[in-house]
TrEMBL record, chain A:
<dbReference type="InterPro" id="IPR042100">
    <property type="entry name" value="Bug_dom1"/>
</dbReference>
<comment type="similarity">
    <text>Belongs to the UPF0065 (bug) family.</text>
</comment>
<protein>
    <submittedName>
        <fullName>Tripartite tricarboxylate transporter substrate binding protein</fullName>
    </submittedName>
</protein>
<dbReference type="Pfam" id="PF03401">
    <property type="entry name" value="TctC"/>
</dbReference>
<dbReference type="InterPro" id="IPR005064">
    <property type="entry name" value="BUG"/>
</dbReference>
From TrEMBL, chain B:
<feature type="transmembrane region" description="Helical">
    <location>
        <begin position="259"/>
        <end position="282"/>
    </location>
</feature>
<feature type="transmembrane region" description="Helical">
    <location>
        <begin position="202"/>
        <end position="222"/>
    </location>
</feature>
<feature type="transmembrane region" description="Helical">
    <location>
        <begin position="164"/>
        <end position="182"/>
    </location>
</feature>
<keyword id="KW-0812">Transmembrane</keyword>
<keyword id="KW-1133">Transmembrane helix</keyword>
<keyword id="KW-0472">Membrane</keyword>
<feature type="transmembrane region" description="Helical">
    <location>
        <begin position="355"/>
        <end position="382"/>
    </location>
</feature>
<feature type="transmembrane region" description="Helical">
    <location>
        <begin position="136"/>
        <end position="157"/>
    </location>
</feature>
<dbReference type="Pfam" id="PF01970">
    <property type="entry name" value="TctA"/>
</dbReference>
Length: 317, 500
């Protein structure tokens, strides 16, 4: 509880209220809108809706969701970057929109266009091969990749960048074949049109459960809860963890008191069991992340990914 | 099987589910009638509401919208030459020509009945053939898709009423329009001229509504004849219906369209649009009245309208049995299933049979509802043609503007539609067919992406295609289609539709 809230609570409400209102302590006084960068029904959308539902209870005003899709998930942050920094309009943004696509697309924003807010969910990645494939472990995959060109399907960043990193570190020849969506990437692997696929659980689970694909490693820091016996890449001696945290951003220059209020409320919402449960159900890992940490994460990744993207001809310059 | 279906009808026959099915079908028809506002947008809008329902109810509602759209899309195509949906673009050609001859009722009637037959056939196919057909979908990789799209593009030979050179020119223009947006491999923008609204490409709505709808408006405005062309509309429902001759000519196209549409609809990417064009080409090749195509041949309505409906059903196979969405709409349905904790895939029959069979039963019921819903209104719709032209023109303008705007809530799209209206008018005046343009625009992006994926997989080696027999088969088919199209062209007296 900050000082102003303490004053309110102490019973000085009547006298203090007008003065305090001017400074924004009763903020928010109207609804908050979150622009979701992906379509309704997807994991980003559903997890953000769960977060909004909790935040609504804490902030005492409606928190509404508007799906602002397009530009590979950059339209929502781009729109928010140009809005009034009153804290009433926020957008979802992850690794792709903040750390990768600014290298690739000509975007109207940079990382400095935003006020960073908390993160709440971590995408989970896995590497799977067709059931008939001789590759059974991460080490098999590396060995194959050193002998010949091994193709993989993925919907895009950041999974492909992880594989590019391996190519550089381990002298493998993993060839990236992009697909417009995770489901298409998985289908290509089922049909053995590519050697393996790197995607998220929601798209991969049906194929894994029916035995058409075999999970050989979690490409994240943690194992998949559905496949507790399958080790992560690191556990198998391959130094890579594809990491992407989903969080919120607002326009640059949200007043400090409002920012504190948002940070506290959103982090509290991210920690609630309801949000955690929804996030897990959608194949993500609950990851309540304070705003400063979320910002550091994205800035670090932005600096790190630039060279990889340029070397593979995917960056603008 | 029968047990399952009975279980499905058991699930369906609650007050809630039956009303949801009817609601979905009605909403779908309305959305289909309104150009621009497509099934994907509608389902995305309704998804949050559907979260409050149980999984079966939600899917019944959303699926109802999906197949309802395939019915509704015909109406504006026939009456105003505005394609309600991309899959109704071909219907504009002969459907509207029929309306001008005073046979709008027959066109709408045969479309509704053909849709019903094809839809029912498609559902039977889903029920009986799901597992084996799912394997075909998996066998299709980048090489196969690239070749299939080439075969699809070769269909322009059949739309080349104005000459193969003009048709090819239009196809190139369509391919070019499809290139605008993000490069599918590197993700860098191209041909966007720094306009943010172009980053996601040119939407089908401004293109189709402008080229077909607004250009038609310009023709209307220029024509001196102010009298409506429809003479005395029949006063009984039966009078609106196709006559004996029209029935006879439609039976085979409906059958062929149903089968074709089902198999093409199975495949992710192509779907209902390709199915309708393919059916049109087939009918044009097989008909005994080739001179009537473009001037109101009922085969050109019956075939494509059946094909796009059975294609809708076909798309459910990869969705339900593999969890693979075949298009944007089934991708949303997949999302809806996941939200409700239903995991589509081979296990769905064992784990959640009530959902699977509930959806199948609701599709039978929904198709029936759509037929009952559509037929009686045919007469009402046809009367819209009696509206004086100045009002009709205003209505077309309004429908096109709202339709275009509703897609992305973006005024830039509306401006583009106006631009395409003038372009389409000029092209039609110059004797160009717009069919090849739309076909190439729809297939081009998939062709490009698949070909480039294939080359990435083969490390740039184009000869790798010889190891893909299905792809080779499509390429041979493409060559044959082109050849036979050209042979047909050497016959005289093929009339093109431009110029009203």
């Amino acid at each position: 509880m900050n000082r102003r809230e303490a004053i309110l609570a102490s019973g000085a409400t009547l006298l203090a209220a007008p003065a305090v209102r001017a400074q924004g302590a009763t903020w928010p006084d109207r609804e908050i809108t979150i622009l979701v960068a992906y379509g309704a029904g997807g994991s980003t959308d559903v997890c953000t809706r769960a977060l909004a539902g909790e935040a609504e209870k804490i902030l005492g005003v409606p928190v509404q969701i508007v799906n602002r899709t397009g530009g590979q998930g950059t339209s929502a942050p781009a729109q928010v970057a140009s809005m009034r920094p009153d804290g009433h309009t926020l957008a979802t943004a992850g690794m792709a929109a903040l750390a990768i696509l600014p290298h690739v697309l000509d975007l109207p924003y940079t990382l400095d266009s935003f006020t960073f807010l908390p993160g709440y969910a971590r995408y989970l990645y896995g590497i799977a091969v067709p059931a008939e494939s001789p590759i059974r472990t991460a080490q098999d995959l590396i060995a194959q990749g050193r002998q010949r060109r091994v193709t993989f399907a993925a919907a895009g960043a950041p999974q492909n960048i992880g594989m590019f990193e391996l190519n550089k570190k381990l002298n493998t020849r993993f060839g990236f074949v992009p697909f417009p969506g995770g489901a298409e990437a998985v289908t290509a692997a089922i049909g053995r049109h590519v050697d393996f696929v790197v995607q998220n659980p929601p798209e991969m689970l049906p194929a894994l459960q029916s035995g058409r694909l075999r999970l050989i490693a979690s490409a994240s820091d943690v194992r998949w809860k559905e496949y507790p016996d399958v080790q992560t890449l690191r556990e198998q001696g391959v130094d890579l963890a594809v990491d992407s945290v989903l969080g919120l951003v607002g326009p640059k220059g949200i007043p400090q008191d409002r920012l504190e209020r948002l940070n506290t409320a959103l982090l509290q919402a991210a920690r609630s069991p309801g949000v955690g449960e929804t996030v897990s159900r959608f194949g993500m890992v609950p990851a309540p992340t304070p705003a400063t940490e979320f910002e550091a994460m994205q800035r670090g990744a932005f600096a790190e990914f630039g060279p990889h993207l340029r070397e593979n001809g995917l960056a603008r310059r | 099987m029968m047990e399952g279906l009975l279980q499905g009808f058991g699930v369906l026959m609650t007050v809630q589910n039956v009303s949801l099915c009817i609601l979905g079908a009605v909403l779908g028809t309305l959305v289909g009638v309104l150009p621009g506002l497509g099934p994907a947008t509608t389902i995305a809008l309704l998804l949050p509401i559907s979260l409050k329902l149980d999984p079966t109810g939600a899917i019944i509602l959303l699926a109802g919208i999906y197949y309802g759209v395939a019915y509704g899309g015909t109406i504006t195509s026939v009456l105003m030459r505005i394609p309600g949906e991309a899959s109704s673009v071909v219907t504009c050609i002969d459907g509207h020509a029929m309306a001008k001859r005073g046979r709008a009722g027959a066109a709408l009637g045969i479309a509704a009945i053909g849709s019903f037959i094809a839809g029912t056939f498609g559902i039977l196919g889903v029920m009986l053939l799901s597992p084996p057909l799912a394997e075909i979908v998996i066998a299709f990789g980048p090489w196969e898709y690239a070749a299939l799209m080439m075969a699809g593009l070769s269909l322009i030979a059949f739309f080349a009423a104005s000459g193969i050179a003009k048709a090819a020119l239009m196809a190139f223009l369509g391919l070019f329009l499809g290139l605008v947006g993000l490069d599918p491999i590197s993700g860098t923008p191209r041909f966007t001229f720094g306009v943010p609204a172009l980053v996601d490409g040119i939407n089908i709505a401004p293109l189709a509504l402008g080229m077909f709808g607004l250009s038609e408006l310009l023709f209307l405005a220029l024509s001196k004849d102010a009298k409506p062309e429809i003479l005395r509309p029949p006063s009984t429902l039966l009078g609106f219906m196709p006559n004996r001759e029209e029935w006879k000519r439609s039976a085979a196209p409906i059958a062929r369209g149903s089968v074709l549409g089902f198999f093409v609809g199975l495949l992710p990417g192509g779907g209902a649009v390709l199915a309708s064009f393919l059916s049109y080409a087939v009918e044009k090749r097989l008909t005994r009245h080739p001179d009537e195509f473009g001037r109101g041949a009922i085969e050109g309505v019956a075939g494509p309208e059946s094909a796009n409906n059975s294609g809708t059903a076909g798309a459910f196979i990869p969705l339900l049995t593999l969890g693979i969405p075949a298009n944007a709409v089934t991708a949303l349905l997949l999302g809806a299933l996941l939200v409700h904790g239903v995991q589509p895939g081979p296990m769905i029959l064992e784990r959640q049979p009530e959902v699977y069979w509930g959806v199948i039963a609701s599709m039978y019921f929904g198709n029936f509802i759509l037929l009952v819903l559509n037929l009686p209104f045919v007469g009402l719709f046809v009367r819209a043609l009696e509206v004086p032209r100045r009002y009709m023109a205003t209505a077309i303008l309004l429908v096109c503007a709202i339709g275009t705007w509703s897609v992305g809530l973006n005024h830039f799209d509306v401006l583009m539609a106006v631009l395409f209206g003038f372009v389409g008018f000029a092209l039609r005046r110059g004797g160009f067919d717009l069919g090849p343009l739309i076909l190439a625009y729809v297939l081009g992006p998939t062709l490009e992406r698949s070909l480039r994926q294939a080359l990435l997989i083969a490390d740039g080696d184009l000869t790798e295609v010889v190891n893909h027999p299905i792809a080779l088969g499509f390429l041979v088919a493409a060559a044959l289609i082109l050849l036979s199209g050209m042979l047909m062209r050497s016959r005289p007296a093929v009339v093109q539709d431009g110029g009203s």
